[in-house]
Structures are given as C-alpha cells and as structure tokens.
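Hi there,

I know you've been waiting on this one. I reran it after we fixed the sequence typo, so this is the corrected version. Both the input and the resulting structure follow.
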Amino acid sequence: MKIVVLGGGISAERHVSLVTATSVCRALRSLGHQAVFVDMYLGLEHFDGPLEAVFEAPDGLCGSAAIETAAPDLAAVRASRQDQGPSRLGKNVLAVCTLADCVFLGLHGADGEDGKIQAALDLLGVPYTGSDMLGSAMAMDKAVAKRIMAGCGVPTPAWQELSYGPEDIPRLTQELPLPCAVKAVNGGSSLGVALPETREELEQALREVLPYGDRIVVEEKIRGRELTVPVLGDRALSAIEIVPPEGKSFDYVAKYQSGSQGAREICPAPITAREQALLGDLALKLHRALGLAVYSRTDFILDSQGRPWCLEVNTLPGMTPNSLIPKAAAVEGMSYPALCQEIVRLSLNKKAVC
C-alpha cells in the first residue's frame, strides 16, 4: 500500500510530530508498505525526480528526528524553506497525497489536530487516518470540548473562557480563582499551559500563555492522580498513570524527556477494576459525543475520593514507539507496527462506510 505519513508542520508541537511521523513511517515500511515521510510545511523541496517515484525513496525520506527540551524555533523553520510564500503547505504536499492509498496523519497541534488538513484531504477525496474535520476541530478547541463534556455528562473541573490582552493582566491577576490551570484553547503537549498557585504565579502565567493565543480556558485545579485512557476502534484500552518528577507538573519536558527530567508512565495504571471501567466508559462517551473515529486519548484527574475529572481529549495523540497509546496497545499484545497498521485499517474501513 502507498502511504504518505504527514508530519512536522509549523506548530509548536513540530518536534513531537517529526518523531511520531518518522517512527510510524518506518513501522509501516517494516510491514512491506511503500510508506514515505513528508513534512507538511517543508514539503518535497529536496526531492528530485517524478513525484510517483517518491514511494521508492530510500528509508522513506525519514531522516533523523528528536524531541528537544525546548519548543521548536518556528521562525528558523520558516526561514529555512526555499519557498518563502504564505502557504502552510510545502511543495507538492497535496499532490503527493493524491497519489497515496492513505495518508497517515502524524501531525500534532495547529493545522493537524484542528481539522484543517482533514478538510483539505476531504475535498481531494483522499483517505486519511483518524477523526474527520468537524470532530478534530471541536476537540482541539478546549472551550468547545468542555461544552460537549457538559452536554454528554462527562465531569470536568469548573472553568471559564476568556479573551484578554496585556492590558487585562493586572485585573485578571486579582480576579481569577486560585489555584487554577491557565490553558491556551488550542494548545497541546503541555505548551501554552500553566498551573499557578499564587497571584504572582498567575500574573506570570497569563503573560507566558498569551503568545499562544488570546483565548484561554481558566480551570479549577483538581489535585489527584493523572491518568489517561486511549480509545482504539470502539473500545477503551488500559488506563495509564502519569507520575511527574518530584515537585513538578507533567509539562513539555516531563512528557518527552527520559531520566530524572521525565515522568514515569505506569501501564496498566494501578487502579481498581471499577475505576478502569468508569474511566473507560467516560473516554468512550466523549469520543462518541465529539464524533471522533479510529483512536483518541482522554486525560483525567482522579481525585482523593476516586472521582474522575476530564481535562481534555487528544485526536492525534503521540505515536512514537514510547508514547502512551503504543504502551497501552502493548499490554494487549499489539506491537507498535501492528498498531500503526490497525490505525490504517480502521481508517480505511471508516472511509468505505462513509
């Protein structure tokens, strides 16, 4: 099967996406597929030859990728592109997608999880992995997703949506409740998120989150255990507990770095069968209410009384070999390449039904 694996892009989650996409591409190639990695922003500007021949490229154009301790320098990425035009799609990206049997979306964040690339591929009639444009857009917008949670009975911490500018920060610093979580509505990978405990930290949080967008969700901070539940197909997989390093939150560094800087991820989570069933039911309920398809991952806090509080849902969660969904799939005996192939199979079946 000819498969384009789209990754990279120009979002703050570019580094994570590069590792996801190149890992998926190599896994699919190991199963005999003609998979090729394409950076959605840079495109095929360095590929010479007929476009049809790209599926024969050595190592599927994967190259090397790593997740750094800091978010990517997007200005440098923009400057590196030969075509300095305004398009967020690189050279021949859509053209090569039309030659594929399926496009595997290894993207994260803006342009990938917000429904934009899904809409473009729908117009081209090209099958792709995961959820459609509408479900992706609703899930990516944290304020919209919160409203869906309320409508379908999935408990979530008390929250409010705000639009603000620098001039509003002194007032908001005094008015907003503490402790809280301040989140850019379209953020991901814990970028554009802060967890202030004091007024001083709140002021700093509002200033640090503002570059990610002037719309935010301010959410009551629930103390408890951090858990996440993957959905694959029509079932919930094992919950995973995330234990950040001592004295730290599950931030960008804790998510993606190993050793003392990284979080511990325990799969299956040490919770009761009742708690697993409850979390699984809630993850499936939200997955269906948003109209999601194929796979997703929903994040929860389990408080000291055993009550689950839903934080958000991810429609294109990390798919590196060490990511959370592959770990949950491994518990059920599914290898990483098999998981990648199952996502393709479920996605093509969904397209056939539509």
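Quick highlight: Residues 250-260 have pLDDT under 50 and may be disordered.

Best,
R. S.
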